[in-house]
Amino acid sequence: MITLRRARLSRTPLVPATGLSTALVLAGCGSTEEGSASPASSDSSSAASTSESEESAAPVDLTAGLLPADAFGADATVAPLSEEELAAGAALAADTEGLTITPESCAAAVQDSQPGLEDFDDFAAQSAQSASSIVVQLLTSGGSVEDPVGDLASAAETCPEATITSPEIGTATVSFTAVDVPDLGDGSAAVSYTTTVTGPDGTAISIPALVGIVSDGDRLLTLTSTSLGGTVDEASFGPLLQQAYEY
């Protein structure tokens, strides 16, 4: 597993893209970190301030909070995810230029639904791939994100269906709804997405995905699941999200 400090974080969306659907709602919004300093009144107070600053800057190891491999099933292959791997998986999500999104409320959801990794101090992530699905678990801490749970929930409420047009993919339709999950931590929410695109041969291709988040103090759990076989298991997603939160 891997934990990275803010200094190494780039503008990477919070979770890797799981089809065009998550590219719609999980596009990251950049933020600017602000700080302040005050003059020291004495050498001793300066030393104390420096010590406190160094202590607060110490990295938080979140890897112990990642689920064990057997939580994802006997056939799952579990591996840690680096920032570079998250960025590669989120390449489409990171760049909304050239995308035309209608209606306008859905365009707003693109910008507001999820913060980027640069908005947090530390993170740890892993993926679990089985024959039928890919699950990504991401833990973050620190930062100043105001209401990621509310952002995700409101995205589903304000944009039940969107049409996305881009030079690369043509036109895609994204339909998504809120998914019931247990009431966890300081707040939790989940959304299901189904993206439908037309393949080169004219065949419609549907890509389903689930995204769930739990806020707990200054920590955030994000769980995504994408089906490799055409369906996602909403019934098991809530319990897995709860297990990940309680672990």
How would you summarize this macromolecular structure in one to three sentences?
By secondary structure, the protein is α+β, with helices and mostly antiparallel strands.
Which descriptors apply to this entry?
247 residues, alpha+beta, Protein Transport Mog1p, Chain A, ten-stranded antiparallel beta sheet, 7 helices, 32% strand
Give unreliable regions as ranges: 1-13, 15-55
Largest sheet: 10 strands, antiparallel
Query: For the record, what CATH class applies?
Result: Alpha Beta
Instruction: Give me the strand/helix succession.
Output: EHEHEHHEHEEEHEEEEEH
Task: Explain how this protein is built.
With 247 residues, the protein is an alpha+beta fold. The protein has a single domain (4-28, 60-246), classed as Protein Transport Mog1p, Chain A (3-Layer(aba) Sandwich), CATH 3.40.1000. Helix content is 26%, strand content 32%. The protein contains seven helices and twelve strands. It has helices spanning 20-25, 43-56, 83-89, 91-94, 104-112, 148-158, 234-246, and strands spanning 4-5, 28-29, 77-80, 100-102, 114-115, 122-129, 133-141, 161-166, 170-178, 187-198, 204-216, 219-227. Strands 1, 3, 4, 6, 7, 8, 9, 10, 11 and 12 form a ten-stranded antiparallel β-sheet that branches. Strands 2-5 form a two-stranded parallel ribbon. A hairpin with an 8-residue loop joins strand 9 (170-178) and strand 10. Helix 5 runs antiparallel to helix 6 (148-158). The protein is globular, with a radius of gyration of 19 Å.
